[in-house]
Amino acid sequence: MAAKARLPTLCAAPTCTLLPSPRSPQTNSMAATATATARRNPARPAKAATGPQEAAAAPARDGGTELSAWTSVRQERWEGELPVEGRLPDWLSGTYLRNGPGLWNVGGGGAFHHLFDGYATLVRVSFRRGRATGAHRQVESDAYVSAVASGGPVLREFSQCPDKPGSLLGRVSNAVGILSGAALTDNPNSAVLPLGDGRVLCLTETTKSSVLVDPETLATVGKLRYADGLGGMMMMMIQSAHPIVTESELLTVLPDLARPGHLVVRMAAGSDEREVIGRVDCRGGPTPGWMHSFAVTENYVVVPEMPLRYSASSLIKCEPAPYYAFEWLPASGSYMHVMCRSTGKTVASVEVPPFMAIHYINAYEERGEDDGRAAAVIVDCCEHYGDPAIIETLVLHRLRSLRDKDVLPNARVGRFRIPLDGSPFGELDTALDPEEHGRGIDMCSINPAYLGKRYRYAYACGARRPCNFPNTLTKIDLVEKTAMNWHEEGAVPSEPFFVARPGATDEDDGVVISIVSALGGDGYALVLDAATFQEIARVRFPYGLPYGFHGCWIPDKILTGRFDGNTQVD
Ligand SMILES: [Fe+2]
Predict the structure, then answer these.
(1) C-alpha distance from residue 532 to each of 474, 512, 528, 537 (Å)
(2) Rounded to the nearest whole angstrom, what is the distance from the C-alpha of residue 56 to the centroid of ligand 1?
(3) 3-class DSSP state for residue 172?
(4) Residue 496 C-alpha to ligand 1 middle, in angstroms?
(5) Which of these, 383, 412, 389, lies nearest to 304 by C-alpha position?
(6) Ligand 1 centroid vs 240 CA: distance in angstroms?
(7) What spatial distance separates the first Cα and last Cα of the chain, rounded to whole Å?
C-alpha cells in the first residue's frame, strides 16, 4: 500500500486521529484510547480518556437536526467499549463489520457530490458475553492516502474525475491511465467479507480495489494481488462488488469491456489465483451491463445483462455519461444468462423485460414435478421498475436537503423466472405488494445458509413515505407475501444483516444487525430479533457514523489466537 507516513496524525493516541476536515473541528473530537491489553482481550472494556457518554454529549453540529449519515466521519479512527441498552443474546459472540463511503471531503476542498464516491470507512462492533466494543477506521487505499497527501482526489472515483484534462497530452495521458487501470480508484468502499481462508477483504468494482484488512484492529493489511494474469487493456479491470464467498471458494464475475461479455471465475480458499469457469457474451451492446452483483443457485451462476451499460467513452475521455460511468440503453435489450457452475456451459440465455437492479437477493432452482430436474431458475432482486433514476437520487446534496420530500424512486422485489427448456424469454414479476415495504427496497440480506436455495425471508431497507432515501428496515416473507417494518423518525438505517443463532433450525432464528444514523448526530448499532423483528438491544456509538453499505459477520473462530484464549469459539 502507499506510504502510511503521509496520513495526518494530529493526536498522539493511536485510536484518535482527526481528519483534516473543515466539518470536523477539534473541539468536537473525542479523545478515546484503547489499551493494548484491551485489544488482546476485547471482553475487557477499553479505557477512554474521554468516555463515550462525554463524547455523545458534544453538541450536534447544526443544533440537533444534523444527520450523521451524510456527514463525513469526524476522525480517522476510534475504538472503545460501547454502552448497551436492552439485553444482547448470550449466544451472540463474534464481530460485525460494515463498510461504506464515510469521507466525502479531504483537505478542505474537492468535496465529492455522490454517495458512492466517499473514501471507505470500516466499522466494527464486537459482541461477547452480552457486552460490546466498537471501532471505526479509514481504509488506507492508495486513493485515500494520495487524496490526504494532495488535499484532494487524485484517482477517478464513481462519479468524479480529479481534473478533466485540457491539453491533448493530458487527454492522452488520461486515456492511457484509464486503459491501464492506473487512474482508476482502489477505494474499496462497497463490501467487506471473510474469505474461506480467514482473510478479510474489502472491495468495490475495480479489481485493484481488493484490499485486505485486519478484522480486529481494522488496519489495512495490503492488497489482494491476483496471481492469475487475468486483466489487460479495458479487460477484466472491473469486478462485481459482491463476490459469492463460501468456506471453499470465492465466485465472481468480471465484465469484459473490450469484447463485450463476462468471465465467471472462482478462486479457491487459500489461493490468490482465479480460474475461469466460463464466458458469456453480451447479447446487447455496445458494452456489458453494470455488474454490481449477481446471483447463484446450487448448480448455476446467473449473469444479468441490464440496459444500464458501462460507457467506455466516458471512462477514456474523463467525461460524465448520463449516469456517470454508465448510460441507459433500453433499446439494447435486457437479458439473463445462466451458466453451469461445474462445466462453464451457458444453459440458458433469455430476453427479459427492461429492468434496473443493483442488488440481487437470492436465487434457486425450481424443479419439475415429474423428474425432479431443474426446470427453471428463480432470481429475486431489488428492482427499480426499469428506471436508473435511483443513481441520481443518491447525490449528496439531494440526500442532505430533500429529507422531507418524497423523491425516493419506487422499487419492488422483482422475481425473474428463467426457463431452462430453451425458451427465448424469461419472466419478471413483482414478488409481493410493494406497499408492504413502502415502495422502497434495497440493501438486502438473507440467512446465508439459504444461499442458492429455496428460501422464505429477506431483510432489506424499505421506505416510510415521504422520504428521499430508504428509512426503514423490512423483513420480507416471500411465502405469505407480507412485510414487517422497523422505523424511527428521522433515522437512516443501513443494510440489515442476519446472524443465525448457533444450532438454529428455523430460517429466521437469529438476529438482524443494522447501524443507524439518528437525528441530532447520534448513531447506534440496532439488534432486532429476526423472528419477531422487534428491537432487543441497541449499542450506542459515541457519535453518529456516516451511512455505510454492506456488512458481514466474522465468527470468533476466525479471530481465535488473536486474543488471550478468553474468547468463545462456536
Ligand atoms: Fe452493493
Answers:
(1) 11, 11, 8, 13
(2) 30
(3) helix
(4) 13
(5) 383
(6) 9
(7) 34
Q: Is 292 annotated as a binding residue?
A: yes
Expressed in angstroms and rounded, the spacing between residue 497 Cα and the centre of ligand 1 is: 13
| Structural domains in the chain, sorted by start | 68-559 (2.130.10)
To the question of whether residue 359 is assigned a binding role by annotation, the answer is yes
112 φ, ψ to 5°? -70, 155
CA of 561 to the centre of ligand 1 (A): 31
**AA identity, residue 530:** A
- Check pLDDT > 70 for residue 425: yes
Cβ atoms of 382 and 375 closer than 8 Å: no
> Is the confidence at residue 539, as pLDDT, over 50?
yes
Query: Is residue 544 classed as helix, strand or coil in its secondary structure?
Result: coil
Q: Which residue has the cell 493489511?
A: 221
* CA 161 to centroid of ligand 1, rounded, Å: 21
Q: Residue 450 above 80 pLDDT? A: yes
Question: What's the pLDDT at 568?
Answer: 31
Residues 6+ apart with CB under 8 A from 280: 261, 262, 264, 303, 337, 339, 346, 349
Highest averaged pLDDT of the listed ranges 14-28, 49-63, 103-117, 139-153: 139-153
Cβ atoms of 416 and 352 closer than 8 Å: yes
Mean predicted lDDT score pLDDT of the chain: 85
Query: In angstroms, what is the span from residue 552 Cα to ligand 1's centroid?
Result: 12
Query: If you measure from the C-alpha of residue 241 to the centroid of ligand 1, how many angstroms do you get, rounded to a whole number?
Result: 6
- 397 annotated ligand-binding residue: no
